[in-house]
Amino acid sequence: MGDTGDWAIGGTQTLREKTVEVLRDALLNQVFKPGDKLVERTLADRTGVSRTSVREALRELEAEGLVTRESGKGVFVTRVSESEAAQIYEARVILESATARLFAERAGPEALKLWIGPSNGPRPPTSPRRHSFTPTAWTRCRT
After folding, report:
1. CA distance 104 to 112
2. How large is the C-alpha radius of gyration of the chain?
3. How do strand 67-70 and strand 74-77 relate by DSSP bridges?
4. pLDDT-derived band of residue 2, with 50, 70 and 90 as boundaries?
Protein backbone atom coordinates (compact mmCIF):
# COMPACT_ATOMS: atom_id res chain seq x y z
CA MET A 1 0.00 0.00 0.00
CA GLY A 2 2.96 2.37 0.00
CA ASP A 3 4.76 4.39 2.63
CA THR A 4 2.35 5.53 5.36
CA GLY A 5 4.94 7.70 7.15
CA ASP A 6 3.57 9.61 10.13
CA TRP A 7 0.00 9.38 8.83
CA ALA A 8 -0.37 5.74 9.94
CA ILE A 9 -3.42 5.07 12.12
CA GLY A 10 -3.07 3.57 15.62
CA GLY A 11 -4.58 3.83 19.16
CA THR A 12 -7.97 3.22 20.82
CA GLN A 13 -10.38 5.32 18.76
CA THR A 14 -12.41 3.65 16.05
CA LEU A 15 -10.73 3.48 12.68
CA ARG A 16 -13.24 5.94 11.24
CA GLU A 17 -12.62 8.42 14.07
CA LYS A 18 -8.87 8.17 13.64
CA THR A 19 -9.13 8.60 9.90
CA VAL A 20 -11.38 11.64 10.31
CA GLU A 21 -8.94 13.12 12.83
CA VAL A 22 -5.89 12.59 10.62
CA LEU A 23 -7.60 14.02 7.54
CA ARG A 24 -9.11 16.93 9.49
CA ASP A 25 -5.68 17.82 10.86
CA ALA A 26 -4.22 17.65 7.35
CA LEU A 27 -6.95 19.96 6.04
CA LEU A 28 -6.66 22.44 8.91
CA ASN A 29 -2.86 22.48 8.63
CA GLN A 30 -3.18 23.17 4.92
CA VAL A 31 -1.48 19.99 3.73
CA PHE A 32 -4.17 20.28 1.06
CA LYS A 33 -5.05 23.66 -0.40
CA PRO A 34 -8.56 24.98 -1.08
CA GLY A 35 -9.82 23.48 -4.33
CA ASP A 36 -7.45 20.47 -4.24
CA LYS A 37 -9.07 17.22 -5.34
CA LEU A 38 -8.94 14.50 -2.69
CA VAL A 39 -8.53 11.06 -4.24
CA GLU A 40 -9.70 8.17 -2.05
CA ARG A 41 -6.98 5.77 -3.25
CA THR A 42 -4.20 8.28 -2.52
CA LEU A 43 -5.61 9.07 0.92
CA ALA A 44 -6.00 5.36 1.68
CA ASP A 45 -2.37 4.74 0.70
CA ARG A 46 -1.11 7.66 2.80
CA THR A 47 -3.13 6.76 5.90
CA GLY A 48 -2.79 2.99 5.62
CA VAL A 49 -6.55 2.39 5.85
CA SER A 50 -9.12 1.08 3.38
CA ARG A 51 -10.88 3.24 0.82
CA THR A 52 -14.10 2.51 2.73
CA SER A 53 -12.65 4.14 5.87
CA VAL A 54 -11.49 7.12 3.81
CA ARG A 55 -14.92 7.40 2.15
CA GLU A 56 -16.65 7.41 5.56
CA ALA A 57 -14.21 10.01 6.86
CA LEU A 58 -14.78 12.23 3.81
CA ARG A 59 -18.55 12.06 4.40
CA GLU A 60 -18.07 13.32 7.94
CA LEU A 61 -15.68 16.05 6.79
CA GLU A 62 -18.23 17.03 4.14
CA ALA A 63 -20.87 17.39 6.88
CA GLU A 64 -18.43 19.66 8.75
CA GLY A 65 -17.97 21.77 5.62
CA LEU A 66 -14.26 21.05 5.25
CA VAL A 67 -14.65 19.23 1.94
CA THR A 68 -17.18 19.52 -0.88
CA ARG A 69 -18.47 16.68 -3.05
CA GLU A 70 -19.09 17.62 -6.68
CA SER A 71 -21.32 15.14 -8.49
CA GLY A 72 -19.37 13.21 -11.10
CA LYS A 73 -16.11 15.00 -10.29
CA GLY A 74 -15.07 13.90 -6.80
CA VAL A 75 -14.30 15.45 -3.43
CA PHE A 76 -12.48 18.77 -3.10
CA VAL A 77 -11.11 20.87 -0.27
CA THR A 78 -13.73 23.54 0.36
CA ARG A 79 -12.93 27.04 -0.82
CA VAL A 80 -13.95 29.82 1.56
CA SER A 81 -15.11 33.03 -0.08
CA GLU A 82 -14.07 36.45 1.20
CA SER A 83 -17.61 36.97 2.51
CA GLU A 84 -17.60 33.62 4.35
CA ALA A 85 -14.19 34.37 5.85
CA ALA A 86 -15.49 37.73 7.10
CA GLN A 87 -18.49 35.99 8.70
CA ILE A 88 -16.20 33.47 10.40
CA TYR A 89 -14.04 36.24 11.86
CA GLU A 90 -17.12 38.17 12.99
CA ALA A 91 -18.32 35.06 14.84
CA ARG A 92 -14.86 34.62 16.41
CA VAL A 93 -14.89 38.22 17.64
CA ILE A 94 -18.27 37.65 19.30
CA LEU A 95 -17.21 34.35 20.89
CA GLU A 96 -13.80 35.57 22.04
CA SER A 97 -15.29 38.77 23.46
CA ALA A 98 -17.88 36.77 25.39
CA THR A 99 -15.18 34.42 26.67
CA ALA A 100 -13.02 37.32 27.86
CA ARG A 101 -16.03 38.99 29.51
CA LEU A 102 -16.99 35.78 31.33
CA PHE A 103 -13.40 35.28 32.42
CA ALA A 104 -13.18 38.83 33.76
CA GLU A 105 -16.50 38.44 35.60
CA ARG A 106 -15.69 35.07 37.16
CA ALA A 107 -11.95 35.09 37.69
CA GLY A 108 -10.54 35.74 41.11
CA PRO A 109 -7.28 37.60 41.71
CA GLU A 110 -5.24 34.38 41.61
CA ALA A 111 -6.63 33.33 38.22
CA LEU A 112 -6.06 36.82 36.83
CA LYS A 113 -2.41 36.67 37.94
CA LEU A 114 -2.01 33.30 36.22
CA TRP A 115 -3.48 34.69 33.00
CA ILE A 116 -1.87 38.11 32.95
CA GLY A 117 1.39 37.27 34.71
CA PRO A 118 3.39 39.56 36.97
CA SER A 119 3.01 43.27 36.30
CA ASN A 120 6.22 44.84 35.13
CA GLY A 121 4.73 48.26 34.59
CA PRO A 122 3.57 49.74 31.31
CA ARG A 123 4.81 48.15 28.12
CA PRO A 124 5.90 50.18 25.12
CA PRO A 125 3.50 50.13 22.15
CA THR A 126 6.00 48.10 20.12
CA SER A 127 5.60 45.05 22.40
CA PRO A 128 1.87 44.43 22.80
CA ARG A 129 0.77 42.07 25.51
CA ARG A 130 -0.83 38.94 24.10
CA HIS A 131 -2.71 36.60 26.36
CA SER A 132 -4.22 33.20 26.03
CA PHE A 133 -6.29 31.27 28.48
CA THR A 134 -4.31 28.64 30.30
CA PRO A 135 -6.17 25.51 31.37
CA THR A 136 -5.42 26.34 35.01
CA ALA A 137 -6.73 29.89 34.75
CA TRP A 138 -9.86 28.82 32.85
CA THR A 139 -10.64 26.06 35.35
CA ARG A 140 -10.33 28.43 38.26
CA CYS A 141 -12.56 31.11 36.70
CA ARG A 142 -15.42 28.71 35.87
CA THR A 143 -16.36 28.14 39.51
Report:
1. 8
2. 21
3. antiparallel
4. low
